[in-house]
Specification:
Blueprint lengths: L1 H15 L2 H8 L1 H4 L15 H17 L1 H12 L5 H4 L2 H34 L9 H18 L2 H10 L5 H15 L8 H44 L2 H5 L1
Helix pairs in contact: 1-4, 1-5, 2-4, 4-8, 5-7, 7-8, 9-11, 10-11
């Protein structure tokens, strides 16, 4: 836990020097829908300073994610078998990559669609969007999407431990489709179809991973049974 906080603190200090650039990149999905020359506003004197602190902390989470995931692995590894601990490096690399890809997906796909929808809904009013409120909105979408993309990794290890099965995932997948729909923007049909298709692919992928993992585990268990049975046969038994 201490190592994770230290890594996050170092990442925060590094990202603090680029907080203005990071926020400029973060608000691009909204800026393209605003009238020319219009900017976000702030109503408190300390709001820009606090905003950049939040931006640095937010970016630091992504930068420090490999270290945080590594510490998480060290926490759970004592409860795993020796053959399962060799997945440490793939777990850190793949989980970090999925988290970053998920955040990019939220920024690239979900955030522009939701901004367009809400701006279109309130077009009869004069808009004065606060920087702090926009950052809270955007960071929630990006972080939530990054965590959603972590579910294949979670399902993989739950399947290894026998907690979930492919049949259970296939049975519950239809409910996940229904639950995801309120989260998708309704501004444009093509955007929604594209987003729901990608989320459906992600759900199907995790079911396939769990199914393959279960089949592989069954084959390994069978091989171990054969080896143990052969080892228990002594030379005396063979002569009998």
């Amino acid at each position: 836990l201490i190592v994770s906080f230290v890594a996050l603190g170092v990442a925060f200090l590094v990202c603090w020097n680029f907080a203005d650039r990071i926020f400029g990149w973060l608000d691009q999905p909204l800026a393209k829908f605003l009238p020319p020359g219009e900017k976000l506003v702030f109503t408190r004197l300390t709001e820009p300073f606090m905003l950049y602190m939040k931006v640095a902390f937010f970016a630091g989470i992504f930068v420090a994610s490999p270290v945080i995931l590594w510490q998480l692995w060290l926490f759970i590894s004592p409860g795993l078998y020796k053959r399962e601990r060799r997945y440490a490096a793939p777990f850190i690399i793949i989980a970090s990559l999925f988290f970053i890809i998920g955040g990019y997906f939220g920024w690239r796909v979900l955030l522009p669609g939701t901004c367009a929808f809400f701006l279109e809904t309130g077009k009869q009013f004069k808009q004065m969007i606060k920087v702090d409120e926009f950052f809270s909105f955007a960071s929630t979408i990006i972080l939530a999407t990054g965590l959603v993309f972590e579910t294949p990794i979670l399902i993989f290890f739950l399947a290894r431990l026998g907690i979930v099965t492919p049949a259970f995932l296939m049975q519950k997948s239809k409910w996940r489709v229904a639950d995801d729909r309120p989260l998708l923007p309704r501004c444009r049909g093509c955007v929604r179809v594209r987003e729901e298709g990608r989320l459906a692919f992600l759900r199907r992928r995790r079911s396939i991973v769990a199914n393959r993992r279960k089949s592989s585990q069954i084959e390994i268990d069978r091989a171990q049974i054969v080896v143990r049975h052969s080892a228990n046969l002594s030379p005396g038994h063979e002569r009998m």
